[in-house]
Amino acid sequence: MTAPRPSSRAVRRRGETGTLSLLEDLDHAVFRSVARMSTPVLDEPLRRVSDFADFSKPWFLVAGALTVFGGSRGRRAAVAGLSAIGAASLVVNQPMKKAARERVRPDRHFHGVPVRRWVRMPTSGSFPSGHSASAAAFAVAVGGVLPGLRPPLRVAASVVAFSRVYTGVHYPSDVLVGATVGVLAGRLAARLALRRRPPTDLTVRGAS
Predict the structure, then answer these.
(1) 138, 75 in Cβ contact below 8 A?
(2) Rounded-to-integer distance, Cα 135 and Cα 152, Å
(3) pLDDT averaged over consecutive 10-residue blocks of the chain (208 residues)?
(4) Which residue, among 120, 113, 131, 127, has the nearest Cα to 34 in the 3D structure?
(5) CB 197 within 8 A of CB 145
(6) Which parts of the chain are beta strand (E)?
(7) pLDDT for position 132
(8) Which fold would CATH assign to domain 8-196?
(9) In the chain, what's the furthest Cα-to-Cα distance?
(10) CA 69 to chain centroid
(11) Which CA distances in Å does 57 have to 12, 38, 134, 148, 160?
């Protein structure tokens, strides 16, 4: 008697499970590679960056400076940036984290993250990274309104995102997905800001 052939749906599910397993293995492998980086000179700076980025403090400070010193274009960029943070945070911290609540934070002991890098481990789920989402959202939104600020803001956002993996509180996929959400929110916010009243000069004085 021959065994029943699995249905196409069962085969598809097995394939999806296998793919997810491979992606998770790759995710963990990259995380371990970062954990084992012998770069003690970066430990303290990146730990401080990761801590300082809590509650989007860097982006609120930049938005404040743009509001005070950037004129009407600066204020428009600040509003776009903060709006993008709000939208990205709402998407990440509500439906996405709730849907992926089973994704636990990395085990820093198990993966060998040096203790000197550690920051406070958040109690929320690991997926996706809220810090990365906020950083990308602000950088893309403000950079869309003020192109002169695009390079430094993107570098700053990338450093914040990498610091979350380096300090051991997020897997790389958490950061990549969070940053993707942030980019989408930032583009939408910049588009709305420019559509409302396109500025004639999109550079900040002294930043072009």
Answers:
(1) no
(2) 12
(3) 52 53 89 95 97 96 97 96 97 90 89 95 92 98 97 98 97 97 98 75 44
(4) 113
(5) no
(6) none
(7) 97
(8) Vanadium-containing Chloroperoxidase; domain 2 (1.10.606)
(9) 81
(10) 27
(11) 45, 29, 10, 22, 12
Give the C-alpha separation, 21 to 207, whole Å: 46
b/e burial code for range 30-48 (CB count within 10 A of at least 16 → b): ebeebbeeeeeeebeebbe
Handedness of CA 6, 8, 12, 13 (dihedral sign): negative
Structure tokens at 169: 């509180």
Position 44, amino acid: E
The two tokens of residue 175 are 């950061």
What one-character DSSP code corresponds to residue 157? Answer: H
pLDDT at 195: 87
pTM attached to this predicted model: 0.84
Q: Are 196 and 140 in contact (CB under 8 A)?
A: no
Residue 200 has a pLDDT of 52
Q: What angle do CA 197, 200, 201 make, to 5 degrees?
A: 120
The domains of the chain are located at: 8-196
Question: How far is the C-alpha of 47 from the C-alpha of 85, rounded, in Å?
Answer: 22
Residue 28 CB coordination number (10 Å)? 16
Position 144, amino acid: G
| pLDDT at 157 (0 to 100) | 98
